[in-house]
Specification:
The chain has about 625 residues and is α/β, with parallel strands linked by helices. The chain is about 40% helix and about 15% strand. A seven-stranded parallel sheet has the order 15-16-14-17-20-13-21, sandwiched between helices. Strands 1-4-7-8-9-10 form a six-stranded mixed sheet, with helices on both faces. The longest helix has 19 residues.
Length: about 625
């Protein structure tokens, strides 16, 4: 099959999906039915103007012309900045003003009707010639909605031996450099040789271009010969594509660089399913009896059950983006009546990381999230909020005050949703456990449920729920979406993991370590409470002494070096060692370089071994050589 034949086949798939097909040269300035004044023009202006009239029939002609003028002119010379500005216009409408009855009216002109598919014009146009900064360029297929070029497909011949999918990637980069105006409006770039197909964002590196394996839903994964067919029928399904550009695109700033992130197919379908389940679970069923039975994934969630389910997506598959897109989509569901979202993590550092992701996604969320710094702030925020809002907190802030036997009700609205990160830590128990002093201790889920008696709960986790873990299911229900390690390996998102036990060789203090480790896990969960925090420090330091004992670290270092060198003799690769504490990491480092001094170098750019850890000027001298700034740690 030639590249031209693949292109024609691709257009046929678009046509079967309800897209109008056109041939670029026909629309060119000198074509049979010209729709462009010149080759610099990337918008189909007649389509855009007609769509604005159609979607905003109340606007006068002057306002429509204002909107077209704003959209035509990219905001910045930086294409990513312009792209973000356009995406904002796409979601919120273009601000316009006009006079009515001698009064100035401030209004919005919407470019796309997300609620009515038939109000939009979908067109897939091949060989769309553009005047680049160096020469004419001709992307294979450009997808327009209402005259806006929202996606580009670059195809390569499946039969050519010396050409592959990454040549298409390189071509997309050339278009970005030479025809930047086209990418000011871009929501997705697709590269394909027919057999393989990948989708990436405006700023995606090669490794961030990912496959799209589904058509209508998570389990709809047909074994088609051409991945490009799945891409066109699935990603470019008109209804799904509108949903995608509305809720599944976010921008973040990383080291002063603006980056655009778009969801993978697993995140897209997980969020859609989770939102559907949440809307059902959150219903106010006052007066109706609710059964405890919870439907398995794919079945109907029990209305009013308050259990919106668990999203299990393996570690490294973009859980924070999934949570962010879920929040953005849920907030705009009319059935939820402007809900309040409470994002709960079990550690302050996770709270901060997730908060940063949500804060960067203001266009999607349409509001600023807030962090509850302590128990009193959390209680005040929850009791005062009458609607809306996104509150971040750690699970420990739901702990009781010293004189409380149960958590007071803070808010009994039905449109509150608790979004839990790592949903099945042991502290989520609803049942009471008898402590040594004769009192009962409840899991935090009980305190949350008491504080928010009508809230719905959804969990996002990177690891599966154990089959005997009844607590998690009692709080959240069952899986609404699964993307496991095998899915990630199949998609090339991660490499296969093989486990090899080394415990038998490292038998020093093993029983004592395991026993103390269980103790520490129990008290760490309560670290919001000052008394138990001191107890935690004591238990932790005892455990640290055992784990970090000199003789043990010496033996661990020898085993690691031998294992690494044996593996390296047959396969290239790197090694990562995770330590219990910074002190143990430094001591282990010293033991390793005592065995292999040539691995060490003071220069961050040299040497074969480095430590990545937090630290400050007030840390003791032992740690100082390994404390680096953010950029250096990221470089490592």
């Amino acid at each position: 099959m030639t590249e031209d034949q693949l292109e024609q086949q691709c257009l046929e798939w678009f046509a079967e999906g309800g897209w109008e097909i056109a041939h670029g040269p026909d629309l060119a300035p000198e074509g049979e039915a010209p729709e462009r004044a010149d080759y610099r023009q990337v918008l189909l202006l007649a389509d855009l103007e007609a769509a604005i009239h159609r979607i905003n029939p109340h606007l006068p002609q002057s306002a429509v012309e204002q909107a077209v003028a704003v959209v035509r002119k990219p905001e910045s010379l930086d294409v990513v900045v312009s792209n973000r500005a356009f995406h904002r216009l796409l979601l919120d409408g273009v601000p316009v003003e006009y006079k009515r009855d001698d009064k100035v009216v401030h209004d919005q002109a919407f470019l796309v009707d997300f609620g009515d598919l038939s109000a939009n014009r979908f067109r897939a146009i091949n060989q769309f010639t553009l005047e680049g900064s160096k020469q004419l360029r001709r992307p294979d297929v450009v997808c327009f909605i209402n005259g806006l070029p929202l996606a580009v497909l670059e195809l390569k011949s499946p039969g050519a031996e010396n050409v592959n999918i990454w040549d298409a990637y390189n071509q997309i980069q050339t278009y970005k450099d030479e025809c930047s105006d086209l990418f000011a409006y871009n929501e997705a770039a697709i590269i394909s040789d027919g057999y393989l197909a990948r989708v990436g964002s405006l700023t995606a590196s090669q490794e961030r271009y990912m496959p799209w394996r589904t058509i209508k839903h998570e389990d709809d994964k047909p074994l088609l010969e051409w991945q490009l067919e799945t891409m066109v029928r699935g990603f470019f399904d008109r209804e799904l594509f509108l949903d995608y550009i509305r809720y599944f695109v976010i921008f973040e700033t990383d080291s002063d660089k603006l980056i655009k992130k778009i969801a993978g197919y697993h995140q897209f379908h997980a969020v859609r399913e989770a939102v559907r389940a949440t809307v059902i679970a959150a219903r106010d069923m006052s007066g109706d009896g609710i059964s405890e039975k919870r439907a398995t994934y794919g079945d109907e969630v029990l209305p009013g059950s308050k259990k919106a389910g668990v999203v299990w997506h393996t570690q490294g598959s973009g859980k924070s983006i999934s949570m962010c897109c879920y929040a953005g989509k849920l907030l705009q569901q009319s059935e939820m009546n402007n809900p309040t979202l409470i994002v709960v993590t079990d550690r302050n550092d996770l709270d901060g990381q997730l908060f940063a992701t949500f804060s960067a996604a203001r266009e999607l969320l349409k509001q600023e999230p807030v962090q509850a710094d302590d128990r009193d702030t959390l209680r005040r925020l929850l009791s005062e909020l009458e609607s809306g809002g996104i509150i971040f907190t750690t699970v420990q802030k739901f702990a009781l005050l010293n004189d409380e036997s149960g958590h007071p009700i803070l808010n009994d609205r039905h449109n509150i949703v608790v979004i839990s990160d790592e949903a099945h830590r042991s502290q989520y128990g609803l049942k009471a456990t008898l402590k040594k002093d004769g009192t009962y201790k409840f899991g935090y889920a009980r305190h949350m449920r008491d504080a928010l008696p009508n809230a719905s709960f959804i969990g996002f986790t990177g690891t599966p729920i154990e089959s005997e873990d009844k607590d998690t299911r009692a709080v959240f229900g069952d899986y609404v979406s699964i993307y496991d390690i095998q899915d990630a390996v199949d998609d090339g998102a991660t490499v296969p993991i093989f486990y090899e036990s080394r415990l038998a060789k490292l038998d020093i203090n093993r029983e004592q370590i395991e026993e103390l480790s269980d103790h520490v896990e129990e008290v760490v969960e309560d670290d919001e409470d000052v008394g138990s925090r001191e107890k935690t420090k004591g238990e932790w330091s005892r455990l640290e002494k055992l784990v970090g004992a000199g003789t043990r670290l010496k033996q661990v270092a020898e085993d690691l070096v031998n294992h690494f060198e044996t593996r390296s003799s047959t396969i290239d690769g790197k090694a990562m060692i995770v330590a219990m504490s910074r002190e143990i990491a430094v001591h282990l480092y010293n033991e390793i370089i005592a065995l292999r001094p040539e691995w060490h170098d003071d220069d961050p750019e040299k040497g074969a071994i480095k430590i990545v850890m937090t630290g400050s000027a007030s840390d003791r001298a032992l740690l100082q050589p390994h404390i680096h700034n953010k950029q250096t740690k990221k470089r490592f």
